[in-house]
Design brief:
Helix content is 43%, strand content 18%. It is built from nine helices and twelve strands. Strand 4 and strand 5 form a beta hairpin. The longest helix is centred in the C-terminal third of the chain and has 29 residues. It is globular and about 55 Å long. The protein starts with 7 loop residues before the first helix and ends in a 9-residue tail after the last helix.
Length: 305
């Protein structure tokens, strides 16, 4: 989806800075809830993605780019933005960061066993990348967001049953989840619209906006939240495939295995909290206003671990 309308003149300005062939045609790309993405086809027949960061200030985007390049340099399947004039990877227009990305030919990774096995492998390889000193240590859609939502609701008199649930779950999960689980760089949002691939093959991991230093196992179950549920229920075979792929590279510890149900609950509520913030508070009045309820409805379902 796109929030920023990009004209052909705008696209030409950025493509010229990238030193590539002139624009032939442009179309908005599906996927993503916080940025504007356009597929641009050039006169030489090649394709690129033009990206405008609608909800991140340029200074944050610059840090995300640093992290993305760090991951790409360490073998993670993620595309780095093209270099522009002056050796930079983004330009600022109307106080927003603009960039040009390689276009990865392929669709969103499907949710089948062979694909999840490969995704598990790719995620474990990501977890093996050494920590970069500038990567944040806070999971942005976790407790820090929950506490902020609850605090503001008390202050402005807008408390809701969901926010009361978040308040209670925050208290309980902080007590039950060990704070010394193996941790390092995580993606934090490996959902289907952030993974390009085809059946049995992962081609690219996208959008490291939630990258941080956190528990590896929490990142793994977050991926299961995105890929492993069908018609409101978890599919055990998909968990088995994801875990098998992951453990072909890195074995979970006994402490991680014991914490999986609580980590999954945390991951589900983190997605619910983000959706509540985005579609109830930040962008009210859309058809997505109740999307957070999808995650709330998962809390009472039996899990395959």
């Amino acid at each position: 989806m796109a929030y920023t309308d990009v004209s052909e003149e705008d696209a030409g300005w950025l493509l010229n800075a990238a030193g590539v062939s002139p624009l032939c045609k442009m179309e908005a790309l599906a996927g993503g809830w916080a940025n504007s993405n356009y597929l641009v086809t050039l006169e030489d027949g090649s394709k690129l993605v033009l990206k405008v960061w609608d909800e991140r200030p340029p200074e944050e985007v610059e840090q995300i780019l640093e992290h993305t390049c760090w991951l790409a340099d360490h073998g993670v399947l993620t595309p780095a933005p093209l270099l522009l004039d002056g050796g930079v990877r983004m330009r600022i227009k109307d106080n927003l960061a603009w960039m040009v990305m390689p276009y990865i030919e392929g669709g969103w990774l499907p949710s089948d066993a062979s694909s999840l096995f490969e995704l598990g492998k790719a995620q474990a390889q990501l977890h093996g990348v050494p920590v970069h000193e500038s990567i944040p240590t806070t999971f942005a859609i976790g407790y820090v967001l929950w506490d902020k939502l609850v605090k503001e609701a008390y202050e402005n008199g807008s408390m809701t049953p969901f926010l009361l649930l978040l308040e209670e779950e925050s208290r309980l999960l902080k007590q039950s989840i060990p704070d010394d689980l193996p941790s390092g760089i995580i993606h934090g949002d490996l959902y289907p619209d952030n993974v390009i691939g085809r059946e049995g093959e992962v081609l690219a991991l996208l959008d490291f906006e939630e990258i941080c230093i956190e528990a590896f196992a929490m990142d793994l179950v977050t991926t299961y939240v995105g890929f492993g549920w069908v018609n409101g229920f978890p599919v055990p075979e998909l968990w088995d495939a994801l875990l098998a792929g992951y453990e072909s590279v890195r074995q979970l510890t006994s402490a991680e295995r014991a914490a999986l149900p609580d980590l999954h609950r945390y991951a589900v509520l983190a997605v619910a909290a983000w959706r509540y913030w985005q579609f109830v508070i930040n962008m009210p009045g859309t058809e997505h206003a109740n999307r957070y309820q999808e995650m709330v409805n998962r809390l009472d379902k039996p899990l395959p671990f």
